[in-house]
Structures are given as structure tokens and as C-alpha cells.
Amino acid sequence: MKLKQLAITMLAGLLAAVPAFAGDGDATNSTTEAEIEALKKEVQELSRKVQILEQQREAAQPAATDTNREQIQALDQKVRILERQRELDKEDAVAAAKTRPLIRLDSSGFTLGSADTNFVINLHGQVQLDSRTFFDDHNLVNSGFLLRRARPIVSGTVFHDFDFMFVPDFGGSTVQIQDAYLNYRYRSELQLQGGKFKSSVGLEQLQSDLYTFFNERSLVTDLVPNRDLGVELHGDLLGGVASYAAGIFDGAPDYNGTTFNSDSDNDKAFAGRLFLQPLKTTDLNALRGLGLGLGGSYEDDHNGASGLTPGYTTDGQQKFFSYSAGVVANGTHWRLSPQAYYYYGPFGLLGEYVVSDQQVSRTTAPLGSADLQNTAWEISGGWVLTGEDASYNGVTPKHLFDPRNGQWGAWQVVGRYEELKVDDKAFSSTLPFAVSTASASAARAWSVGLNWYLNRNFRVNASFSHTTFSGYTGTFPAVPAQPENVLFTRLQLAF
Amino acid sequence: MKTFLKILLACLLAATADAKEIKLLNVSYDPTRELYQDYNAAFTRYWKAKTGDDVVVSQSHGGSGKQALSVVNGLEADVVTLALAYDIDAIARQGQLLPADWQKRLPDNSTPYTSTIVFLVRKGNPKHIKDWDDVVKPGVVVVTPNPKTSGGARWNFLAAWAYALDQYGHDETKARDFVARLYKNVPVLDSGARGATTTFVERGIGDVLLAWENEAHLALKEFGADKFEIVTPSESILAEPPVAVVDKVAKKHGTTELAKAYLEYLYSDEGQEIAARNFYRPRNETIAAKYAGQFSQTKLVTVDEVFEGWQKAQKKFFSDGGVFDQIYQPE
């Protein structure tokens, strides 16, 4: 286009110059004509050159365009290939992630698992370092530190539906296997568990040691079975609105700190529990945390002395009642435990009543039997001062303990009242199964405390417990001879 | 005690009674999604009419080799409908989930339909691809999946190799060079045939897709004949995708009878019609004749004829360190 414009401009210039020459007279005509001819030739030559140049350019242009197009297409293909390769790499990465084993370390412990989660193993544990300081005890009891619980815990799942748990305990004075069981989950509503585990009767007993309001469970737990060996059908119905458990067990006496790994007789116990949280899934926020239940057990127990409790203990774990020598279990032993809890926001309340009815006999004179009905109840509550929600499964602090940033974890105040009463018939003057000179017939206690949750894994407790006794007529000093006053502390690590 | 046990048993039975639902899992290869969607609907109707039972068939699709490995590793397939017999052999051999002679249990070596390998090119065939020789030319970009994971890709590989053998007087070295040149033109390997179709059709990569015949027709149907063309080479391979009941899984699920019926129905007139409508070549001669117009006629060789069966072919070409590993060099 530029060449064409140049030619037109030159032509216009030449034509404009022609009249100027025309006015110079005849003498100059021939010269002028010659010059015009020369200019014409020059213009024609220029036009020809322009034409050639244009033709050359037009010929060159398509070639250049085709080359560019090919280059662009090739680049486009390369980009597309790279993008696709990236897509495929991502797909491969996702596929690889699906087959990559799970390895996790967090507040729940150490977890190893297969990518499909069909096989999982958790390593976790708990350690509780307590102190108990007794006041005005006339040196009957040693105050001091104790390793209350030290439990490495192995739990997991195999083949997706089979769970297991193994919990030895190195705390206290003896090493025990606390839990060792297998659980088959057909569905959450229907599970079958076998091995050694907590018998499903007492609400407080079934609560994990990690989450109880106080260091020690209350007097009601003296009347329910501890861990037992057996098989249990259990499950959660309607999304946890109802839960049930029913099992057959070797049979365990009223609360016994020491558990066994075998049976000592042919008698078997049935234990079961139904627990309802009727408003759990409703919009009634204030009542969602209400739970009501009934636990119970039955056994025709002729297991002699081992069928009886080794003794009922106080909050400070001091024995205040035991059956006399020569008294044995000899007949039915049933328990019934209506129970409830209520949690709403930072508030938590737990209450339980237990009756333990057992037929006992004397094997020494005077011979005879009796049906003794011992009862206990407790109510305990707590308020999380820092506003976190209280629950049956503990408190999770909103702000983890971090003094450098002014965060102090969660704080909870707790209180409890409890009573245990031994059947009056146990102290009969004509057919005694216990003697008032060695045992009290009742205990009543109140406790207050402060719990500090530094984070999900670490907790510090401090509480004071005051217990009084009645029915004791023995010598002084003795455990039931004066009130028990104990200050508890605990450092707890659980992961 | 007895009462308790009775109650326990009653609870267990009550809980399992409502769980009865006839489910079947068909683990298949990549391009059969549409085929089995149609077929499952027909079969469930047939089974309902025959037995009154409702059956729910689930499908799983992916590269045939990967799918076989998944079944070996625990994917509970009641039936497998894979791209080639070797993959079901692997399930029998490695997983011990069905007998080694599984292929004898249904007609036509348990292959109710067949297919072959064709070329899908862009409309107007700008690279003038007519036969395998054009595919290996420098500058032609070829899309085919990974033979390590895809059954279709293995058929592609063997079809090219068989053609080269014919062209070069059964000279293995030249055949190897021919196929090496082909894979030099392959810029990206998808894990399955459907992925390769996506690469070619949706991502716009490449000049030619080596494809199952049914997959090529499906691409034409779905994305438009104005965008692509099918080119049938002068020689290709008879692809025989087999089917089998996974005995141990079916027995465990209590679905053996149903699984057998599911596969047998593929040979029925309705099953064959559905296969043909989905561009698979039916075994039934009458139905094959009815749909003959939609399949190009070309020379088809078989794996048994040229490669002495899948076991040898797999070991020679696709095992670790095999010919494919030797000739394919990703850029």
C-alpha cells in the first residue's frame, strides 16, 4: 500500500508541474515534450517496479501466513498435550493417594491404616498421676503420690467391620488387663462384642476415667459390676436416640478394683442396659443433652466368698464396709440402676441410683441366709467457667493453654453428693453378716473440685471430699470412726 | 441361658431379614459404560419378569488391566466383563477367584460380542491417514492409551504389530521398528480407552485416535459426524472382550445364579441387539447381518493366529521389561 501511495503522489506531482512548462513559448516546446516523454517513461518504469514489488509481496505473504499458522498449531498442540499430561498426573496423584497408607499423629494418638481404612491400628494411652492428702486421719492412711493409671492402649479395626481393643494397666500396685475385646459391627445398630470389658450397668462406671468429674467415682459405683468376661449384643438405634446392650458374663461382684481373666464357677450373669436420649435429634436445644436409662444385672450366684464384694470404699479408696469372714454369696444377685444425665452448654449433671440385692449365707454358726439389699445414689454436676460445652465425653477447650498468647484452656467447677446404705439385716444381732465394730452401715459424702483442661490431652484436677459414716461402733481410730477428709490432685495425660 | 440365646438369635435374624437386596457388581473396562447401562436396564426387566425379584446392577469402569488388579485386590465383583482374556486369567491366577478354565463356561470362549481397532481422525482427514503406514509418519500425532493399564491399548499395539508383520514378511525387527515409530508419535498415554477418547475428542490433541470400533462410533454419535471421521485400516485385529462370573465373590454374596443369568442373557436376542446398537459386533449371525451396514469390512487377524494366545503376547510385549517398555520412551 505504501508503494502505491508513493507512485500516486509522484504522478500527481508531475502532472501538477506540466502547466508550468506549457507557458514558456514555442521555443521551448520541443524540449518540454521531450522532458514530458522522459518523465512519462520514468513514471511507467516506477509503476512497473511498484507492480513487481507488490506481486513479490503478495507472493511472499501467503507463505509466511501458512508457516505462522503451522507454528501456532504446533504450539497449540504442545500446550494441549502439556495440559492433558498435567490432568493425567493429577489423576495419577489422586489414584496414588487412594492407595497410600494412612499415617497420622494427633491428639487421638498414633494411627496407621490402609488407604481403604479397612485396616486401622491406633496406639494411644493414658497416665494419671494423683496425690491424696488426708486430714485428721490419725495417721491411719498414707498421704502421698500414686500412679493411679498408666495404660498403653492398642485399638483398631481389621477387615472393616472387626474392631479390637487391648488395654493393660500398669498403674496401682498390680498389673492388670483392663480391656481385651473384639467387636463385630454388622451395622451401628447391631454389634457383637466378646472379651473383657465393662459390664453395661452403671452410668458412671461406663463413663471413661478420662472424663469423670472427680478423680474417683462415687459410692454408687461400689454397687455395680466392674469389667467382666462375656459376650454382649449392643448397638445404637435411630442415630443414637436409643442405645442398648445385653450380654452374658462370668459374673462380677459389687465393685471390685481388681478384675479377673477367668471364671471361678459355672454361674453366669446377664447384664443389660437401655439408654435413651429422646430429644437428641430435635430442635429443642435445651433438651438435646438429656439422657435417661436403666441398667441391670441378674445372676444366680453360688460362688462363695468370691461372689461377694471385697468391700465398699470411700472416695479416698478406704474400705468402710466388708462382710464378715464365713459369709458367702448363695443365691440370686440382681441389680437395678435407674440413671440420667443432662448436658446443656457449659452445664452438666449426672445422677444415678443403684440397688444391689444379693442372697448371702453364713457358713459358720449361727448358720442362716438372708436377702440383703444395699442401695446407693449420687448426683454430681459441673459448670465450665470458660463457656465450653460440657458432655459425657469431657470438655474440649476452645482456647488451648498458651500463656504466651494469653490463653488458659478451659476451667470447670464440679460438685457431688453421694450416699451408700448397707441393708440393716446385714448387722442383725441374731444372724449377722457384718459387724458394726468393723464396718459402717452407711456413708455419705460431698465433694467440690476444680478441673483445668489445658488442651484435649492434658488435664489437671483438684478436689476436696468429705465423707461421714454411720453405724460404726468399733474402736477409735478406724476408717469409719471419724469423717474422711481428702484433698485430691491429678495430672492427666491422655492421647 | 437357652432363652437368652434364642433372643440373641432372633435379634440377629431380624436384623438381617430386611438387609436382603439383590445387588450385582459388574466390573468392566473403559468404553462399555453405555453398553451396560442399556443392558442392565433390559436385564433387570427380564429378571423381574422371570423371578419377581428386583436386581440392582452397579457398574465399575476403568482400564481393563487396572480393573483386573482391583478385583484381585479385593474389589468384590460378581461378574467381570473385561477387554481381554488375559485380564480375567490374571484374576483366576492371582486372586484364585474363579477356575482357570473359566473361558469354557460360556459360548464363543465367553465372548458374547467382538470389536476391532479403527482410526478416528478429524473431519476432512487433514493428515490423509488411510492405513497404519500413515500413522507412523513423522509429524502425525497419535493418541492411544497405555498398554500397561488398558486392554484397548493392547489391542491397538497388537493390531499395528500384526499389520507390520504382514507388510514386512514377518520380520520381527521391522515390525518392532514400525511400532516404535508409532509410539514415537504418541505424546501422552491415558490409562484407559475412555481417557484417550477424551484426550482426542474433548482436549483436541492429536491427528488420529487408535480406538475401539464401538468407541469411535460412539464419539461420532455424541460429538458429531461433522467433526470426526472413522478410517478403517486395511488390516486390524479381532478384539474379543470376554465375560465371567467371579465365583468366590458371587458365592459369598449369594448371587451365583443371578450372575450366571446376567452373563447368559448377553447371548440372548435382546442382549445381542443391545450390543449391536452400541456398535459391538454381535455373535448372533442373524443380528450381525441386520447390523452389518454399520461395521466396515476389513481383514481381521486374531491373537491366537498371530501371537499364539494372550499369555505369550502379554509376556512378550507388555510385561515389565517387555517390548513396549523397550520401545516407548516418554518425552
Task: Describe the protein's architecture and organization.
- The complex is a heterodimer of chains A (495) and B (331).
- Chain A is an alpha+beta fold and 495 residues long.
- Chain A has three helices and 20 strands.
- Chain A has two domains: 84 residues; 391 residues, Porin (Beta Barrel).
- A 16-stranded antiparallel β-barrel of chain A has the order 3-4-5-6-7-8-9-10-11-14-15-16-17-18-19-20. Chain A has a two-stranded antiparallel ribbon with strand order 12-13.
- In chain A, α1 packs antiparallel against α2.
- About 3% of the residues of chain A have low confidence.
- Chain B is an alpha/beta fold and 331 residues long.
- Chain B folds into two domains: 168 residues, Periplasmic binding protein-like II (D-Maltodextrin-Binding Protein, domain 2); 152 residues, D-Maltodextrin-Binding Protein, domain 2 (3-Layer(aba) Sandwich).
- In chain B, the strands form four sheets. Chain B has a four-stranded mixed beta sheet with strand order 2-1-3-10. In chain B, strands 6-7-5-8 form a four-stranded mixed beta sheet.
- The longest helix of chain B is centred in the N-terminal third of the chain and has 19 residues.
- Chain B is globular.
Layout: helices, strands, pairs:
The complex is a heterodimer of chains A (about 500) and B (about 325).
Chain A lengths: L1 H21 L6 H71 L2 E5 L2 E5 L6 E16 L8 E15 L3 E8 L6 E12 L2 E9 L4 H4 L20 E11 L4 E8 L19 E8 L13 E15 L7 E2 L5 E3 L5 E18 L2 E16 L5 E17 L25 E12 L20 E12 L4 E13 L13 E11 L1
Antiparallel strand pairs in A: 1-2, 2-3, 3-4, 3-20, 4-5, 5-6, 6-7, 7-8, 8-9, 9-10, 10-11, 11-14, 12-13, 14-15, 15-16, 16-17, 17-18, 18-19, 19-20
Chain B lengths: L1 H16 L4 E8 L3 H19 L3 E8 L1 H9 L6 E3 L3 H11 L11 H4 L2 E2 L2 E6 L9 H4 L6 E2 L7 H17 L4 H13 L8 H10 L5 E5 H11 L4 E4 L3 E3 L5 E3 L1 H7 L2 H9 L4 H9 L3 E2 L2 H6 L8 E3 L1 H5 L2 H9 L4 H5 L4
Parallel strand pairs in B: 1-2, 1-3, 6-7, 9-12
Antiparallel strand pairs in B: 3-10, 4-11, 5-7, 5-8
Helix pairs in contact in B: 2-13, 3-4, 7-8, 9-10
